[in-house]
Fold these 2 entries.
Entry 1:
Amino acid sequence: MKYRFIDLFAGCGGLTLGLKAAGFMHAFGVEQSPMASETYFHNFIKPITSESIWNKYSSLVTDYGDEGLINQLEDGLVIGPVSNILKTKGSKVGKYIINNYDGIDILSGGPPCQGFSIAGRRILDDERNILPKQFLQIVNMLNPKVVIMENVVGMRSKFVGMSSKIEAVFHQIAIELRKTGEQYIVQEMELNAAHYGVPQNRNRVILVALRKDIAKKNKVASSEDLWMSSNYVNGIDKSIPDLCPIPLVDFGDNQSFICVKDAIGDLYANKPTKNSEYLISLNNINSGLSRSLKNKLSDYDNAPNFNKRTHSPDVQDRFRLYQLLHKHGIKNNIFNRAANDEFNKDQKLEAELQPLFQKLSRYKSLRANDGIVVAHNKDELLDKIKKYATKKHSQYPLAENKLARAVLTIPDDVVHPIEARTMTVREQARFQSFPDNFEFRSKETTGGHLRKFQVPQYSQVGNAVPPLLALAIGKKLKPLLRS
């Protein structure tokens, strides 16, 4: 039996891909951004072999109103705000949705997180904060068997100016779900994607709600406490609530996490590695892609979205310096200190840079990971650190044998572990566990005020739910729907 799901605020489709790989059937997705929608359409609905295919589909609602919206629902992707499907039961669209999706197996989604993120200003009147309410309205409208909501950890923190008597938004949603429609048992959890085979240290809050009649039938209970995968992995708490996916890795003696080199080593310009077990495992989720894309690539030599960004000689020189210092355990705050006039008098500096000074005396030069000389002597090294001083240092190189840091929507913050450049879209996608057959569409990046409105490829990758994490959640939930 096939179980169906709806993916709201679908983005490029990371959650959709993972749930499809777990064996669920895609009913439809909803995504407001035309740029992210283009990627979703290309991978899940129909490969875009000409712009006319995409232009015709994306204009359906504009040109044909409710008829166009129903056509998009039937095909599997609604391009526009979630409010488009919040139609009254008596309307043509409302009747279609109720007749076809009432009691859907899974309703999933990740409402845009910027209004909640601890990286930005969390304010009560941010218009994006209405989107979780729309999500709850659709839960009430369709009474799905399972609800999945994903977001940044900041959703568990309160807004600026919020009364101490008011719960954080994420917990408010859990409270509402317990009394919505046919009512749900709700499990709040904080999952690190790295614990589920993703080569990235990425913590997200996940809310899984199971309809009470299904829970009773399966004798499933939830814990009112937040469950954290890190507590399980680190041996703090080995108990796992019924709705939580069991971590796949152990951060104990065997260090079984997937590292940066496992994810992108085959793409190195010099001495590329063989395909790792991780890359081979990504083939297992190709089943979620449209048939004509699924077997497009026989190997990883011609991975799509692998457009290396070009940098000036000075920027490349700076990146090499970052790699050199990072390799020897020297912290990035040295560039903050270098912006201070007292830098050359810093008493800690001599001890901090001693490993590099010793290497200079032995080899007469310091070379970056790609073999290019960074400095020939102590004074040249100090001059370079001073040259690239900044009070707001945010860039960092990745380490080959460690997890990648959380993939963000801005590509300029992360430096390649070996080459003197930032990361490509494909490399970031590898860190998110997208297979190479998944092709990202629209322009690569944008800047300035356009970031508020556009969702280019780098943003699509950074905003996505890692497919392997979605797969783990799907596998945990599927047996509950069989009985």
Entry 2:
Amino acid sequence: MTTTKSAGAEKRRHPRFPLAITMNIPLGGETGETRRATICDLSMSGMSLTSDAVLEEGMLLHLKLNLPLEIRGEVRHAKSGPGGLHRYGIHFHNIKEGMTERKA
């Protein structure tokens, strides 16, 4: 018997796990402005988040959590939603855990 994937099935290297963690996104510039965001799901190579911040595909982010964890990633997907919220797909470039760094 052969199994087939539906046309809309996602093809990911790593499984994503649902979360609901809020964080600040630095928008750069001289003002040091940040916006709140909520991480919706997380995997070893990426995450999705929602925010009222306007981010562009290809934009590089340097995210710091209230954990010994820093993430450098790139906005790969952007989708506008209701109430001025946007949903973004972020692909990780580097994850720094405490004193170690690894490529995603």
